[in-house]
Specification:
Elements: H1 3-19, E1 26-27, E2 30-34, H2 41-48, E3 55-56, H3 58-70, E4 74-82, E5 85-92, E6 95-102, H4 107-114, H5 127-143, E7 150-158, E8 162-170, E9 176-184, H6 190-196, H7 216-231, E10 239-247, E11 252-260, E12 266-273, H8 280-287, H9 300-317, E13 322-331, E14 334-343, E15 348-355, H10 362-366, H11 379-391, E16 395-405, E17 410-419, E18 423-432, E19 435-447, E20 452-461, E21 464-473, E22 482-494, H12 495-498, E23 500-516, E24 519-534, H13 540-544, E25 547-561, E26 572-584, E27 589-602, E28 606-619, E29 649-650, E30 653-654, E31 659-669, E32 679-691, E33 706-717, E34 720-731, E35 741-748
Parallel strand pairs: 2-5, 6-8, 9-11, 12-14, 15-17
Antiparallel strand pairs: 1-3, 4-5, 7-8, 10-11, 13-14, 16-17, 18-19, 18-35, 19-20, 20-21, 21-22, 22-23, 23-24, 24-25, 25-26, 26-27, 27-28, 28-31, 29-30, 31-32, 32-33, 33-34, 34-35
């Protein structure tokens, strides 16, 4: 039993015995308070909720004692009532002079374990709060993986009834996850289930990852991830019965998940219930959403996507406010769905309050909101608004709170942001079969709180030295359009294999914006000055193309992006087209680029990716294009061949072409290492060609299709991402130089 509670209980029993005979209330004519030094008489009276003239009885005496103990100002209290006089005698709790915490060196860890402490410097000491603080610190350390932490608390009493609190913390070693086990219904391999969760088994090469240590918060997330995984594989009633850690040895645990997954169920009949005035075109759009759903395994993600799409269609194209829901009927191993759509009365936004933006100007935040005061509240637009704020990368956290007034159907929205440092200093290096690269950069994402992005970087490789400064305003003049400018300088030395080197400097000004849902448009002006030099061994035609050039281009681009996610895409497609149109140019070169990429998920979450790439570079007035405007196949578009060393040659120099095209297809393969979630193995086929030489058609090698098959391995190693490919060329031209093995390592520091 806690000391404070003991004192309170003894006091209550005493006064119960003293006043149990008091049956009639008496009035207080005088209040005498003794023993107090720091706490004034008036303060004690206020917390006692008692005044002269009040009636007194045993219940009120008990309440006085209770109220005063709850202040934590006093360690002992006695109350006596006699001859209409109330005597309150107190012994004040010591005042905490200072709190010292030893054994914690990390500033971040110190902030974490102390953020919820009840005891503070200059506050009254409480045994109860001290015990709570000790348990809270142990809890936070446990959440960080330190299961073996111990705390020794010393109390050093000083003059004037004060004390110092000293927390001596022995953090100990982190609790390692030696083994992860899945029990119950074993439908999937352990390796697959391990790839779903965040927690990882401890391996010596994972010395950077913090996921290999036991963390109760992460385990809770793991439970949700596992359940969602089963729900999306057709197991409607899947449950994670339990998850716990079992001590294996002195420093390691086995993490055990018990899973219950019954029979797999499949989508069957699907129907719609619509308002009477529902638009026929919208009905067709919605009906098309689940035409291919029947017979597919149950998936909660598919249902949620359909509901979201229904809301998008109805809100954007017919109603101000709707509610889309689904009724599920399970029988045998089938499930029938009925999607219900109803128009609802709109709730209007009365006010939007923004808090926590000490640096970021309020206008910058409001410019990201797709809903405004006076608008009907739209949950889709609201969620997009919050995502817009998070995507700014200005804030550690974005919280929202609603206050609804049902009487006049309005809503007040409170948005609270927690800002974070937005400046970065970056350095990185890469090494591979194509050479080495070193990069340095400075970046500020929220300059002067205006939302402006400034970026300066320098990149040095064996062929190039590139410097770039960029400035971007993501929401110019409240227009939802971004404007940007880039100033860059590029020096490229390709004399040894390509016969030329170039020094190019220029400026770009442009804008881009979302023109329609998932369709993005960009326009810009490029101006640059370039000096091209050739090698003495270069051909006569190559020599003719050296000189100084001044060019201005209009750049247009269209990007239709329907991928389910930008990174680690599993479904969808992306179409991209860009064109650089000459305005004032010495060669009047028109450059067009077209890329279409498709993603298809099949079997056990494997992803099939196909991509078509095409680019042309031609003078619209018939001149020979510059050496630097000739096209070379990107290395990722044609594996199995040395970078740039394919296609037409003029003497000893690879000169590229006016046209390049490639078709690439790849697919995931099962994990190389059963328990590894940081490796991806792929099989690929690359087919490509480069052709067309405007100054000499005799150099054209348009019939020389290049192709290769191979294996690729992506590994997120402790020192950075590593990429390996082993290729076997299938077809090649007489000039082409093959490369069976390729690797790249990139990291930052």
């Amino acid at each position: 039993m806690h000391l404070k509670f003991k004192k309170y209980l003894v006091t209550l029993i005493t006064y119960f015995l003293l006043f149990s005979t008091v049956s009639n209330a008496e009035n207080i004519k005088n209040i005498v308070i003794t023993g107090n030094d720091r706490v004034s008489d008036e303060t004690i009276k206020i917390f006692s909720s008692i005044n002269i003239g009040d009636e007194i009885n045993s219940d009120k005496l008990n309440k006085i004692i209770k109220n005063l103990y709850e202040t934590n100002f006093f360690e002992n209290i006695s109350v006596n009532f006699e001859n209409h006089e109330l005597l309150i005698t107190v012994k004040e709790s010591p005042v905490i002079n200072k709190i010292l915490i030893n054994g914690v060196k990390s500033k971040t860890m110190m902030e974490t374990i102390t953020k919820n402490m009840l005891l503070k410097s200059r506050s009254s000491f409480s045994d109860y709060q001290l015990d709570k603080d000790r348990l809270e610190i142990l809890k936070e350390l446990k959440n960080m993986g330190y299961y073996y932490s111990k705390i020794e608390i010393l109390q050093e009493f000083k003059e004037n009834n004060s004390l110092d609190l000293i927390f001596n913390i022995n953090i100990g070693d982190k609790a390692k996850i030696k083994k992860i086990t899945f029990t119950g219904n074993k439908i999937f391999k352990d390796s697959k289930l391990k790839s779903v969760i965040i927690s990882e088994e401890f391996k010596f090469w994972k010395f950077i990852s913090g996921k290999k240590y036991l963390n109760e918060n992460i385990i809770l997330i793991d439970n949700r991830l596992l359940k969602n995984f089963y729900l999306n594989q057709g197991y409607f009633n899947a449950e994670i019965n339990s998850s716990f850690a079992r001590l294996i040895d002195n420093e390691s645990f086995e993490l055990i998940f018990n899973i219950n997954a019954n029979e797999r169920i499949f989508f069957n009949n699907i129907s719609l219930k619509l308002p009477d005035d529902f638009d026929k075109n919208n009905y067709t759009k919605i009906n098309n959403l689940f035409q291919d759903l029947k017979g597919e395994p149950y998936s909660i993600n598919k249902i949620e996507k359909i509901l979201k799409r229904i809301n998008n269609i109805t809100i954007y194209e017919q109603y101000v406010s709707t509610n889309a829901s689904v009724e599920e009927n399970v029988y045998d191993n089938k499930i029938d769905l009925k999607f219900l759509i109803e128009e609802t009365d709109p709730i209007y936004v009365d006010k939007i309050n923004i808090y926590g933006n000490n640096v970021t100007k309020e206008a910058v935040i409001r410019n990201q909101l797709e809903i405004d005061e006076g608008d009907p509240f739209n949950n889709i637009l609201f969620n997009r608004s919050i995502n817009n704020l998070k995507n700014l990368n200005f804030f550690k956290d974005v919280k929202t709170e609603f206050l609804e007034n049902t009487s006049n159907k309005t809503k007040i929205i409170d948005i609270s942001v927690e800002e974070k440092p937005t400046g970065e200093i970056m350095a990185g290096a890469g090494v591979g079969t194509s050479g080495t690269t070193t990069t340095f950069g400075i970046k500020e994402n929220n300059y002067l709180g205006n939302g402006l992005s400034l970026n300066a970087n320098l990149e040095i490789s064996e062929e190039t030295i590139k410097g770039k400064f960029s400035l971007r305003n993501p929401n110019y003049n409240n227009s939802n359009k971004s404007i940007y400018t880039n100033i860059q300088s590029l020096e490229t030395d390709r004399l040894s294999d390509f016969g030329y080197k170039t020094n190019k400097s220029g400026i770009t000004i442009g804008t881009n914006f979302e023109n329609y849902e998932d369709l993005f448009f960009g326009i810009g002006i490029n101006s640059y000055y370039e000096v091209i030099e050739t090698d003495s061994t270069a051909s006569t035609q190559q020599q003719k193309l050296k000189g100084n050039y001044f060019d201005n281009f209009l750049s247009l681009n269209f990007d239709y992006d329907k991928r389910n996610q930008k990174f680690q895409t599993t479904q969808g497609f992306r179409n991209y087209f860009s064109s650089d149109i000459p305005l004032i140019s010495e060669t009047n070169t028109l450059v067009n680029t077209y890329i279409v990429t498709n993603y298809y998920e099949y079997l056990n979450n494997s992803v099939l990716k196909s991509s078509f790439y095409f680019q042309n570079s031609n003078s619209i007035t018939g001149e020979n294009i510059k050496l630097s405007e000739r096209l070379y196949l990107p290395s990722n578009r044609l594996r199995g061949f040395q970078k740039g060393k394919v296609g037409p040659k003029d003497g000893d120099d690879f000169i590229g072409g006016n046209y390049i095209a490639s078709f690439n297809i790849s697919s995931d393969l099962p994990k190389v290492l059963e328990n590894s979630q940081t490796t991806d193995l792929k099989i690929f086929l690359d087919v490509a060609n480069v052709w067309g030489v405007d100054y000499d058609s005799g150099l054209d090698s348009s019939d020389d299709i290049k192709s290769a098959v191979g294996l690729g391995l992506d590994w997120f190693s402790p020192i950075g991402p590593m990429n390996f490919s082993l290729s076997q060329p299938l077809s090649k031209g007489s000039n082409d130089i093959t490369e069976s093995f390729r690797f790249n390592l990139g990291t930052t520091f």
